[in-house]
Amino acid sequence: MSLAPRAVLVHRTTEYEELVARHGTHGQAAFFLSSRGRDIEEIAERHRRTRRAMAEVTAAIPLTWRQTRVERADLDRFLFAPEDVVVVVGQDGLVANVAKYLAGQPVVGIDTDPGRNPGVLVRHRPADARLLLPSVLAADTGTDGLTMVEAVADDTQRLLALNEIYLGAAGHQTARYRLGLDDDGGAVEAQASSGVLVGTGTGATGWIRSVWQERGGGGGGGGDMGLRLPGPTEDRLVWFVREAWPSPATGTSLVAGELAAGGRLTLTVESERLIAFGDGIESDAVELTWGQRVRVGRAEAALRLVG
Predict the structure, then answer these.
(1) What residues are paired with 137 via a beta bridge?
(2) Does 133 score more than 90 pLDDT?
(3) 241 strand-pairing partners
(4) Strand runs (DSSP E) across the chain, as ranges?
(5) Order of strands, edge to edge, in the sheet holding 273-278?
(6) Considering Cα of 65, then 69, then 72, then 78, what sign does the dihedral take?
(7) pTM of the full structure
(8) Which of 233, 48, 47, 56 lies closest to 133, judged by CA?
(9) What is the maximum span of the chain, computed from C-alpha positions, in angstroms?
(10) H-type helices in the chain, by residue range?
(11) Which of 219, 59, 234 has its CA nearest to residue 144?
C-alpha cells in the first residue's frame, strides 16, 4: 500500500522571534530597538503576516495527507521522503536553501511578504494554497525543472546548490589554487583571488548577477567576454573569479566564462584550507585541503518548482 502524500512545510524563524529570543520579552526587544531609533511594530507586523500565512497554508492541506514542519536551521538533519510535497512558506532564498536536500519532490513556493520578496521562487500567495495543493500531484500540473549546480571533490564529497557554489577561503584571506576547464585544451592557470563563483540561471537573479553587473553586464554589452546570463531552465552555467590578483606566479586570464551542459570547471587547491558552499549556507560546507581537486558543473538533478 502506497503512503499518503506528506506536506512538508518549510519555514524560518522570523526577525521578531529572533529579537524576543535574544532579549527575553517583547518589551525588552522594543526598548532595545527604540534606543537605536527603530520601532518594533514593523518587524512585529511582518511576523504576524508570516504566522497568518502559515496558518492559512496549513488549513489548505488536504485532510487525507500527512503533514510536518521543518525550520531552516534543521534542514540538514531532516529526512525528506519520495512521497513528500514540499511547501516553502517564506522568501525566495528559502527555496534555494531546501533544494539541495531534495530528490525530485515537487516544491510549492508561498510568498509571505509580497512586495518585499522578488517572488522568483515563491510564486504563490497563501490564499492560492487551497486550490493549488490538492492538484500538485495531478499529471497535468505544470512544473519548471530549474537547473542546479554541483561540486564533486576527489574524495567523493559532493555539494549541490540551486543558485551558486562558492569556492574560496573561509574568511577574508586570499584563496590560492589552479584553475582549468575541461574543454580548454588542458590549459591551467595558477590564481590568487577572493574565490570563484559558479552559478545557474536561478542564481542569475542574486549574487551572480551582482558580479556580472560589476563587470559591465548591466550596460547591455554582456560584461566579461560578452557573457549572457542563463535562464533558470537553461543547462548553461556561468562562472566568475572574484578579484583575481596578478603576480609573477599567478595570472588573470581565466576570470569568467560559461559551462555548457557537460562542461566542468576544475580547481586544484594550493592553500592550507579552502571551502565550497552553496546558496550562502557556509555552515554546511565542503572542506578542501592542499592538493585536492574539485570539479564543478551542472548537476543531473533539477528542482521541480510548481509554476
Answers:
(1) none
(2) yes
(3) 196
(4) 6-11, 66-71, 84-90, 106-111, 143-153, 158-161, 164-168, 175-181, 188-193, 196-199, 237-241, 256-259, 264-269, 273-278, 286-289, 293-306
(5) 256-259, 237-241, 196-199, 164-168, 273-278, 286-289
(6) negative
(7) 0.86
(8) 56
(9) 67
(10) 15-23, 26-34, 40-60, 92-99, 129-135, 207-214
(11) 234
Q: How many other C-beta atoms are found inside a 10 Å radius of the C-beta of residue 190? A: 14
pLDDT digits (tens, 9 = 90+) for 144-153: 999 999 999 9
Q: Which residue has the cell 581565466?
A: 254
Between CA 98 and CA 253 the distance in angstroms is 35
Q: What band does 219 get if pLDDT is binned at 50, 70 and 90?
A: low
Query: Which residues contact residue 68 at a Cβ distance below 8 angstroms, ignoring those fewer than 6 apart?
Result: 6, 7, 8, 9
pLDDT in tens, 160-197: 999 999 999 988 789 999 999 876 666 789 999 999 99
C-alpha cell, 247? 603576480
Where do we find the cell 537573479?
A: 205
Give the pLDDT score at 86.
97
Residue 41, phi then psi, degrees to nearest 5? -60, -40
3-state secondary structure of 38: coil
Nearest residue to 272 (alpha-carbon basis) of 287, 284, 252: 287
